[in-house]
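Input record (Table S2, row 237):
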Amino acid sequence: MMITRTAMTAEHRPSHHPETGALVDYAAGTTSQAAGVMIASHLALCPVCRGEVARLEALGGAMLEELPPTPLASADIDALLARLDKLDAERPSFAPERQPVAASIVIPRPLRDYLGDVDVGGDLTALPWRKLGGGVDEIEIRQAAGHGEHLRLLRIKAGSTVPRHTHDGNEMVMVLAGGFTDASGHYLRGDVGVSDTRVHHTPVADSDTNCVCLSYTDGPLRFTGPVGWILNRFIRF
Ligand SMILES: [Zn+2]
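Output record (zinc ion complex):
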């Protein structure tokens, strides 16, 4: 069955965005690879943040031009140019979605490039999900993750609650399909929830459809609710 992009996504315009600091890091090319995939995936779906990153990049360029000229040996210039080229090549780029099909309807282009052997030509259910229990499945995306970082696709069964948890580090979660609600609001496609060690949250997936998210963490998750201690023993986030 052909599913049109309009039917799948209903063109939701994200209302929850990454923190400005994360966009600044991305624009400056100082973001980690895995966080960059998260930001680039959000940019593919969010015209507001695309505009913001373009503004920041222009600002960065203007500031570079304002700097007083420093005499650089040509070897230094070559090294600098090589470094800039490398930064550009490493930074995941973003492009707005055009004519996606099947699972690739749901998975933004910048993320698809990091899924390696995962076949995004089929539908979402055909992806190699690993059961975490409690109505949550995951696909770990190792290609992009640096030390201590985790980038993963999460699938939360319709109506399920992700056990109450907190973080040793920072977490960004972006909805790719379906939606979830936590104390901070309702999240739909393209929306990014940001939390850190201070947040104990309990996201609940919308009841009508499974919720698929992209999750980035730079520290382990710790479950804190009544079933949390059991999950902590079995799930090594
Ligand atoms: Zn945004």
